[in-house]
Amino acid sequence: MRVMKHRKGQFIILAVLMIAVMMVSLGAVLYSAVTYYKRERWEEYLGIIDHVKIGCYRLAEISLANYTLTNNTNILRDNFIRWQSDLKKVYPGFGIILNYSLTEGLHYVYGENIMYNLGLASRWHSNSSFSAANVTFTMNITSVGLTGYKFKASAFLQVKLLEAVYVDSKKKTWTILLTVDREELMPVTNLQKASFSVSLNNQSKDFSFSRYYNSTYSSFVYQLLCSNTQSPPTSTMVNVTDSRGIKVVASYPPT
Amino acid sequence: MKIKKNVKGQMRVVETILASFIILFALAFVNMLAVTPSSLTYEATELEKIGHNVLHDLDEQRLLGRFIYPPYEWANLTAALMVSLPSDVYFDVTVYDSKDIVVNSVPIRYGDPEVFTKASMIASVSYGVPGYQTSYDPRILVLQLVRG
What we know:
- The complex is a heterodimer of chains A (255) and B (148).
- Chain A has helices spanning 2-34, 36-39, 42-70, 75-90, and strands spanning 96-102, 105-109, 112-116, 120-123, 128-141, 146-167, 173-181, 196-200, 203-205, 208-214, 219-226, 236-241, 247-252.
- Chain A is an alpha+beta fold and 255 residues long.
- In chain A, helix 3 runs antiparallel to helix 4.
- Chain B is an alpha+beta fold and 148 residues long.
- A 4-stranded antiparallel sheet of chain B has the order 2-1-4-3.
- In chain B, a hairpin with a 2-residue loop joins strand 3 (123-132) and strand 4 (135-147).
- At the A-B interface, helix 1, helix 3 and helix 4 of A face helix 1, helix 2, strand 3 and strand 4 of B.
């Protein structure tokens, strides 16, 4: 009788111990389930992927801007080689490995046949002129086992001279109408007068500047008015540099 | 008989106390593992997330490059961060070049420096900018955040 009572007491202790073990196990399982994403810092990794991507876009723009100024065709490759090693300094411990592939050859992009050389291309002195850069990246983050994340970085600036008309009135004005587009053929609408320069018959010419939406072309246009032009020029050259420093030179045969 | 009953009662009390201790211990252990919104681990992650987003937004708007390259606009960077971050979050930014030399000649900070030295938990975010306009000249921003 006494022994039996003793056993009952032991059983309660054992039962409570088992319940405690179950609670701890359940807690640990719930913890790992609920905080899995937190512990793995997924949001931080996603943030870093975004940072690396935006850095690569900026680098494509910087390299294209440099190329349009210096005509150095190796600039994109050189900059990316340096960026590859500098990225490890920016995000130490993440194991970021960035590989790149510079676009080569003829590609139909943004309505133009673009001939890339080491990821860079330009076609100037045309009434539809452009400067372009295009690179494909593959990113690995070894600390989380992310491999083969691909994305493209491209920079593009296109200037289209829509018309150049001579008005032989008192002011003798040479009117140039043009559009400026960037990647995805998005119109660039924030350019100021300082972004443009005009040469008529290879001589720099002062101009007045306005910008507005033109319903005829269904597009946002820039109008450059060169007054006191004695006769229609034989060559018109418009130099455009956008806020990123990318330059395009467009020419229009006078009519 | 009387004595036996007494012993039985005492044993139950002892068992109950032991059981309570075991359950309390188990609860305390489980609570120690939990990452609640008030815990330091959760707070650091939240601040880091905010810091990442703010720097990313400034970069996307092409403001970050303008602020950290000559002619430097440190005051504008401070103002932009003050506007973008919650008012109870203090920050301290240090800008380094590729040779790990500090670029910012003035402190880019909101909050007393003591807040950062005395804080039990500081969230730190690093952000890289490859260059500005036509030149490759990387900058590394280290943003430290503390909730006041």
